[in-house]
Design brief:
The protein has 320 residues and is mainly alpha-helical. Helices cover 67% and strands 0% of the residues. The protein has helices spanning 4-36, 67-76, 84-97, 104-119, 121-125, 127-151, 156-185, 196-206, 210-216, 223-232, 240-251, 258-272, 276-279, 284-306.
């Protein structure tokens, strides 16, 4: 039987890998968006501070939400538990602790990636080196996920990795939709209306879903269609619906799954019953906040069922 401690380590390793990947993708696409839009309607950088869930923490350390300050906070600031560098550090630490279970290549790649990301941080903060730095992190995270899927035994430990990965991808999707849609659909969005197409494409790219959307959704890129796809699609690996289905499949392979399955059922019903066209007119932020709370409840149910209830050092920087 897998120990609770080991299950939790594997779960958080996967979450941190996806957190580093998702944050890096968002920063890449936002940098592109700032360049693509006229300066008069640029989304700026402060909106990204909602991603970690506690934007006020940024202003404890910085006076202004300038490009460089926001990038430093989200990429490499040790005081931000959700920064890319902190996420890589914690993924590496969890892989180190679980070396008896995870493939050797996973530990080695995460160790090398964290060391490289720390050493080259200044390159990542500069405009000239930002894309190469963040794309290296995205590519390396994908490589780690490939090692996990291709070389790790698909038994109970693997299911906890899968649950961690899919909970984090779903949570990141909800956060990014909330961050981006606020500017697109909010009261001040009128001047941005001519650029809706560019901005919704940026949402899809941040969620690694632009190509899949073009293949499967036979309408132009627009708000309701993007929301419906990212919330309800059953085949795109970065949609919330797909991720919840994947967590449910993993749970059905495990004992004592009754409470987590009930919790996940509530979240799935929320998504299934969502009126995405109505949400583009009003209520989207409240809906996404409620969905984020449902995902947090799912995490809490997994923790209460399978993990140690006391805080543990390998996820002390976690945000859910």
């Amino acid at each position: 039987m897998l120990l609770s401690r080991t299950a939790e380590i594997l779960y958080w390793m996967a979450r941190y890998i996806e957190r580093a990947d998702g944050t890096s993708r968002l920063l890449i696409t936002h940098s592109d968006l700032v360049l693509d839009l006229p300066a008069a309607v640029s989304p700026g950088w402060e909106s990204l501070l909602a991603l970690p869930g506690e934007p006020e923490s940024f202003f404890q350390y910085f006076e202004e939400a300038t490009e460089r300050n926001v990038l430093r906070f989200l990429i490499g600031d040790a005081r931000n538990p959700g920064s890319v560098l902190n996420s890589l550090r914690m993924a590496r630490e969890n892989a180190r602790i679980s070396r008896a279970i995870v493939p050797r290549e996973v530990w080695e790649k995460l160790n090398d990636l964290w060391a490289w990301a720390r050493t080259c941080l200044n390159d990542g903060l500069a405009r000239k080196g930002r894309y190469a730095y963040l794309n290296e992190i995205v590519g390396s995270c994908a490589e780690v996920v490939g090692y996990i899927h291709g070389t790790m035994s698909h038994d109970t430990p693997f299911e906890f990795v899968q649950m961690g990965r899919n909970v984090e991808v779903a949570d990141m999707a909800v956060r990014i939709l909330d961050v981006r849609a606020h500017g697109l659909l909010g009261e001040s969005s009128g001047e941005l209306r001519p650029y809706d197409d560019i901005q919704w494409k940026a949402v899809l790219r941040a969620l690694a879903s632009f190509q899949n959307y073009r293949r499967h959704v036979h309408v132009r890129v627009k708000g309701a269609a993007v929301l419906g796809y990212m919330l309800q699609d059953e085949h795109s690996p970065h949609s919330v619906g797909y991720c919840l289905d994947a967590v449910e499949r993993s749970l059905r392979m495990l004992p004592r799954n009754e409470d987590p399955l009930r919790t996940i059922g509530h979240a799935k019903r929320m998504i299934r019953d969502a009126d995405v066209y109505g949400l583009t007119r009003s209520g989207l932020h409240d809906f996404l906040e409620e969905l984020s709370t449902a995902l947090a409840s799912l995490h809490e149910s997994l923790q209460a069922t399978y993990f140690l209830l006391e805080p543990t050092p390998w996820h002390s920087l976690a945000t859910t």
